[in-house]
Design a protein that fits this description.
heterodimer; A: about 700 residues; mainly alpha; 5-stranded antiparallel beta sheet; elongated; B: about 260 residues; alpha+beta; 6 helices; rod-shaped
C-alpha cells in the first residue's frame, strides 16, 4: 500500500462527491432563481418599457395634433430603430390601428403576436385609461400594450415586446460566476478536508502502512502502544497482535533453546545445536525483541501550517483582481508623477517591501518563533486591510498596503521556516509541495472570488472581507505548536553581506539564471497579470469578475502543469530547455495581444503566461544550484538562494512600474506586447547562453527552496 | 471511524454553506443590479424627454438659466411615472436651477449627486441613498457642450420593499438548497469513508479467516491487497520457521 497515493485517491473521491453534489445544488439554485427573477423582473420591465412607450406615444400625439393622419405618420420606423439602439432588450415595437392591424413595426411580428393584436381583449385596450399597463407573455415575448387615444377617441394600440431570453441572459451571465464558485469550491473542499480530516486520516493511514510494512519486512519487535484513537484501530491491533504473537513465539523458542543449552555440553542433544543455529539464522533474517528507537517525527505537525497559510494568503489574493482599479478611484495629483505610475505604485511597493524585508524577517522569526511571527504578521496585515478599506487617497493607501506587505512577508517567511524546521532532507521536497500547494490553492480561489465580491458588494467591503480572513487566520495560526514544538536541524539564518551580493551579481553563471530567467519571469507576472490585466479588462468594458476569472485561469494552469513540468526537469539540459522554453511561451502570451483587442485574447494570453511560468518555475531554482555549486560550497546555500530570491522579488516590484511606464507612453496593448517581446528575447538569450561550449559536466539536480 | 464521520459532516456543511451561500449572494446582487439598471434606464427615458425640451428651448435662443416654461415641463414629466418623486436641474457647479419641489431650490445639491454626475462622463448616473436616491443624465447644449445635469429623484423605499421581498424568496431557496446539498454531500462523504472502512474490515476479516478463505482472496483484490499479501507471506514464513525449530527442540528433548 502506498500511503500517500491511497490518501490522495481518498481525498479526490471525497472532493469529487462533494463537488458533484454542490454542482447539482448550484444548478438547482440557478433554476429556481430563474423563476423568481422572471416573476420579479416582469413588472420592472413593464415599467421601463412603458416609459419608452410613453415617449413614442408623445411623438404620435404631437404629429396627430399637428394634423397628420394616424395611418400616414412619417419617420415612425426610424424612431423605432433609435429606440432599439437605446433599449436593446426591446425586441419588438409596433403600432396597430383600432382593428388590430399593424401600421408601423420595427420588425415583422410573429404570427402569435399578430393574432394577439387582433384579439378583442387587446382591441378593447385601445379605449382603456391604464397608466402602467400589465405585462403579458405571448409566445416567447413579454408584451406591453398601451392605448393611443386622440381627442376624438381611440386611435389604436402601441405594442412593445421584450424577448423572454432577457431573463435567460441574466441567469446565463451569472452562470460564469457560478462556474467560478464551483472551481473554488473544489479547491476549498480539498483544503478543508486537509484541515478537518487530513491530519487524522493521514496519521491513521501512516500507522496502518507502518504496521503492514513492519510485517512485510519481518520486523516483529514490540513497540510502545500508540496513544489516541486511530481510525483503523481495530485492524492495526489485529496486525500488531499477529506481530506480537510471532515475537512471543520467537521469545519462547529462544528461552527453550537457552534452557536446553544450560545442561552440560555432552548431554545436549544434537538437534538443539541445530535449532540454535536456526535461531541465529532466524534473528538474522527477521527482527525480534523490543524496539526502543526514538519515535519518528510526527508529520502531522508539518501539515498544520497549510490551513493558516491558505487562509492568510487568500486574504491577499482576494484583492488581486481589483486593486489597480481601486487605486485608480483614489488617485490624486502628485506633481511629476503620471497617474499610470501611481496606479502601479501600491503593487510595486508591496513587492519591494516583501523582497527587502524577507532576509531580516528570517532572523526575527528565529528569535520570536514561527507561531509568534505569523501571529504578529497576520495582525499587522489585518490592520492593513482594514485601513485599506477606508483609504482616503492613494497616498494613505500606500501606507496601508505597506502594512499588508510587512504582514505578508512575516507570515510567508515564518511559514517557510516552519516547513524547513519540520522537514527532514528526505521529506524536504514533499514538505515544500505542501507549502506551495496552500499558496497555489489560495491563488486559484482568491482573485476570482475577490473580483465577484468587488463587482457585487463593492471594493471597500471586499477589503473588509480580506481583513476578516486575515483576522480569521490568527485563530488557525494559534493551533500551530509553540516554540518548543519546532525542532531545529538547520544552520541559523544569516543575512548575505554586501560583498557577497556584489560577488554574486558579478558572477555570470548566477546572473544568467537570475537576470535572464527569474527576474523577467517575475516582471511578466506582476506587470502583466497583476497590473495590466485588471486595468485593461475594465478599459474594454468588462468587469472585475472577468479579471478575477482570467487570473484564476492562470493559477489553474499553474496548479495543473507545474507538477508535470517539474517531473520533466531531470537533468541540466532539460532544465535549460524548460526555463528557456518557458520564457518563450510566457513571452508569446504578451506578444499575442498583437492579434487584437478583447477578453478572449487576454484569456489566451494568460493561459500561455501560466503555461510558460509553470515550465520554468521549478527548473529555475534547481538551476541555481546546478550553475553555482562552487559558490554554494564557499558561501553556503542559504546565501546563494537568499540573493537569488531577493533579485527575483525585485523583479516582482519592477513589473508594475515597467508596465505603467509602457501604458503611459504607448497604451495597454503595447504594454503587453513590449513586456512579452522582452521576455521572448530573454528566453532566446538564455537558450543561446546555455548552449555555449563552456558548460561544465552535469551535476545531479537538486530542488532548493 | 465515528469521529471521521462527524468531521466529514462538518466538511459538507462548511463547503455547501460556502458554495450555496455564494451562489445565493450572487443571485441577490445580480437581481439588485438588474433592477437598479432597469429603474435607472426607465428614469433616463423621462430625463431624455426633458433634455429634448431644454435643447428645443436653447435652439430658440433662451438662456439655460432663464427657461420659464421648464418648471411646468418638469412637473408634467414627473407625473408620467409614479416612481419619480421630483426632477431637479442643476448647473456644472452644483447650483440648483429648477426643481419640481420649490423648497429644494434654496438647498445645495447633494454632494453625492455632483460627484456621481462628474464621474459618469457621458453616461447616466445613479445614487442609491435613503434620502437622496436619484438617477441622472448630463445636459448638453446644441454644440454638444455640457451645461448641467438633470436628476430624477425616486422613492428608494418602494424599490427596497420589492428588493426585500425577492431577497426573502432567494434566501428561502438558498436555505432549502443548502439543507438538501449539505445532507446529500454529508451522506456521500460518509459513504466514501464507509467504503474505506469496508476495505479495512475486509483485511481484518481476511487476517482472522486465514489464507485459505474466500475473505482473504477478496481482500487481496482490494486497495490493501498487495500490502496484505506481503505481510501474510512474511509472517507465515517466520511462523513456519519458528514452528519448525520448536519441533526440532522438542525432538531433541525427546531423544
Amino acid at each position: 500500500m502506498n500511503g500517500s497515493s491511497y490518501l490522495r485517491s481518498i481525498y479526490l473521491r471525497l472532493a469529487g462527491v462533494v463537488t458533484l453534489v454542490v454542482m447539482l445544488a448550484l444548478l438547482a439554485n440557478a433554476y429556481v432563481s430563474h423563476r423568481i427573477f422572471e416573476r420579479a423582473l416582469a413588472p420592472h420591465i413593464a415599467s421601463k418599457v412603458s416609459s419608452v412607450g410613453a415617449s413614442i406615444r408623445a411623438l404620435v400625439y404631437k404629429a396627430v395634433e399637428n394634423g397628420m393622419a394616424f395611418d400616414e405618420l412619417y419617420g415612425v420606423t426610424e424612431r423605432f430603430v433609435e429606440i432599439k439602439r437605446e433599449a436593446p432588450e426591446i425586441s419588438y415595437i409596433g403600432i396597430a390601428d383600432r382593428s388590430g392591424k399593424v401600421l408601423y413595426r420595427s420588425i415583422q411580428e410573429p404570427a402569435a403576436l399578430a393574432a394577439h393584436f387582433r384579439s378583442p381583449a387587446t382591441i378593447e385596450l385601445g379605449s382603456s385609461r391604464t397608466v402602467v399597463p400589465a405585462v403579458v407573455r405571448v409566445d416567447g415575448t413579454y408584451l406591453v400594450s398601451m392605448p393611443i387615444a386622440g381627442p376624438k377617441g381611440s386611435l389604436g394600440v402601441l405594442h412593445l415586446g421584450v424577448n423572454v431570453s432577457f431573463v435567460d441572459d441574466i441567469v446565463l451571465d451569472m452562470l460564469f460566476d457560478v462556474l467560478v464558485v464551483l472551481v473554488v469550491t473544489l479547491f476549498f473542499t480539498l483544503e478543508l478536508l486537509h484541515f478537518i480530516a487530513g491530519a487524522k486520516l493521514e496519521s491513521s493511514l501512516r500507522a496502518l502502512g507502518e504496521a503492514f510494512e513492519r510485517g512485510a519486512t519481518g520486523d516483529f519487535t514490540t513497540r510502545r502502544r500508540r496513544r489516541g484513537a486511530q481510525a483503523f484501530g481495530s485492524l492495526i491491533r489485529t496486525l500488531d497482535s499477529i506481530l506480537l504473537n510471532i515475537n512471543a513465539a520467537y521469545a519462547s523458542l529462544a528461552q527453550a533453546i537457552e534452557a536446553g543449552r544450560r545442561v552440560p555440553a555432552h548431554e545436549r542433544p544434537r538437534a538443539l545445536a541445530l535449532a540454535h543455529g536456526g535461531l541465529n539464522e532466524l534473528s538474522g533474517r527477521f527482527r525480534f525483541g523490543v524496539d526502543d528507537s526514538p519515535k519518528p517525527r510526527d508529520d502531522g505537525q508539518l501539515a498544520k501550517v497549510r490551513a493558516p497559510l491558505f487562509v492568510f494568503i487568500l486574504a491577499e489574493e482576494l484583492t488581486r483582481s481589483f486593486l489597480p482599479a481601486y487605486t485608480k478611484d483614489l488617485l490624486v495629483d502628485v506633481p511629476g508623477v503620471s497617474p499610470q505610475v501611481i496606479i502601479g505604485l501600491p503593487i510595486a511597493l508591496f513587492m519591494l517591501i516583501v523582497a527587502l524585508s524577507q532576509p531580516f524577517l528570517g532572523v526575527l522569526c528565529e528569535r520570536k518563533g514561527h507561531r509568534q511571527t505569523m501571529l504578529i504578521g497576520a495582525a499587522i496585515a489585518t490592520v492593513g486591510f482594514l485601513a485599506t478599506a477606508f483609504a482616503h487617497s492613494v497616498l494613505d493607501l500606500l501606507l496601508w498596503r505597506s502594512l499588508c506587505a510587512v504582514g505578508y512577508a512575516m507570515v510567508f517567511v515564518a511559514g517557510q521556516a516552519y516547513v524547513l524546521d519540520h522537514a527532514t532532507p528526505a521529506t524536504r521536497a514533499r514538505s515544500f509541495a505542501l507549502f506551495v500547494g496552500a499558496i497555489m490553492a489560495a491563488t486559484v480561489c482568491g482573485p476570482s472570488i475577490g473580483g465577484i465580491l468587488a463587482d457585487n458588494i463593492g471594493e471597500r467591503p471586499t477589503f473588509l472581507v480580506a481583513a476578516a480572513l486575515a483576522f480569521g487566520s490568527i485563530f488557525v495560526i494559534r493551533l500551530l505548536p509553540g516554540p518548543s514544538g519546532a525542532p531545529r536541524h538547520r544552520a541559523p539564518t544569516r543575512l548575505p553581506t554586501l560583498r557577497e551580493i556584489g560577488a554574486l551579481m558579478a558572477n555570470g553563471r548566477f546572473m544568467m539564471v537570475t537576470a535572464l530567467a527569474a527576474m523577467p519571469a517575475k516582471i511578466l507576472l506582476t506587470g502583466v497579470c497583476f497590473y495590466l490585466i485588471p486595468l485593461y479588462v475594465l478599459s474594454i468594458g468588462s468587469t472585475q469578475s472577468m479579471a478575477g476569472r482570467i487570473l484564476m485561469a492562470y493559477a489553474v494552469v499553474m496548479v495543473v502543469m507545474s507538477p508535470l513540468t517539474a517531473a520533466l526537469a531531470t537533468d541540466r539540459r532539460r532544465m535549460h530547455w524548460l526555463v528557456g522554453g518557458g520564457l518563450l511561451v510566457s513571452g508569446l502570451g504578451g506578444v499575442l495581444m498583437l492579434a487584437g483587442d478583447g477578453v478572449a485574447l487576454v484569456f489566451a494570453s494568460v493561459l500561455l503566461v501560466g503555461l510558460g511560468q509553470s515550465m520554468s518555475i521549478s527548473a529555475q531554482s534547481a538551476l541555481v544550484s546546478e550553475h553555482c555549486a562552487q559558490e554554494i560550497s564557499q558561501m553556503g546555500e542559504g546565501v546563494i538562494y537568499g540573493v537569488y530570491r531577493l533579485l527575483e522579488r525585485i523583479g516582482n516590484a519592477l513589473g508594475p512600474l515597467i508596465a505603467s511606464a509602457l501604458v503611459l507612453s504607448f497604451g495597454y496593448r503595447t504594454g503587453f506586447i513590449v513586456i512579452g517581446a522582452a521576455v521572448v528575447a530573454c528566453g532566446i538569450g538564455f537558450l543561446v547562453a546555455t548552449r555555449s561550449p563552456r558548460r561544465r559536466s552535469p551535476a545531479p539536480a537538486t530542488a532548493c527552496s | 471511524m465515528d469521529s471521521t464521520g462527524s468531521r466529514m459532516v462538518a466538511v459538507a456543511l462548511v463547503v455547501c454553506a460556502f458554495a450555496v451561500g455564494m451562489s445565493g449572494l450572487l443571485n441577490y446582487f445580480k437581481y439588485r443590479s438588474t433592477t437598479n439598471r432597469l429603474v435607472a434606464e426607465r428614469l433616463v427615458v423621462t430625463g431624455k424627454a426633458v433634455e429634448n425640451s431644454i435643447q428645443s428651448a436653447l435652439e430658440l435662443g433662451l438662456q439655460f438659466s432663464e427657461m420659464v416654461t421648464l418648471p411646468s415641463t418638469l412637473e408634467r414629466e414627473r407625473a408620467t411615472d409614479d416612481l419619480i418623486e421630483g426632477i431637479d436641474v442643476f448647473d456644472l457647479d452644483g447650483k440648483l436651477l429648477y426643481s419640481t419641489d420649490r423648497l429644494r431650490l434654496s438647498r445645495p445639491v447633494p454632494e453625492a449627486w455632483l460627484s456621481a454626475a462628474r464621474r459618469s462622463g457621458d453616461g447616466y448616473w445613479m445614487v442609491e441613498s435613503d434620502r437622496d436616491a436619484a438617477a441622472g443624465i448630463p445636459l448638453r447644449n446644441n454644440f454638444d457642450l455640457p451645461i448641467g445635469y438633470l436628476a430624477l429623484r425616486y422613492s428608494q423605499d418602494r424599490l427596497q420593499s420589492g428588493l426585500h421581498q425577492v431577497a426573502r424568496q432567494l434566501a428561502l431557496v438558498t436555505v432549502i438548497v443548502f439543507g438538501v446539498a449539505a445532507g446529500l454531500s454529508a451522506l456521500a462523504l460518509i459513504a466514501v469513508i464507509r467504503g474505506l472502512g469496508n476495505d479495512v474490515v475486509a483485511v481484518e476479516q481476511a487476517l482472522r479467516a486465514g489464507e485459505a478463505s474466500a475473505a482473504y482472496s477478496r481482500a487481496l483484490r482490494g486497495p490493501f491487497g498487495e500490502a496484505l499479501r506481503r505481510f501474510v507471506e512474511t509472517a507465515r514464513e517466520a511462523d513456519a520457521r519458528i514452528t519448525d525449530l520448536r519441533a526440532r527442540v522438542h525432538r531433541g528433548r525427546d531423544t
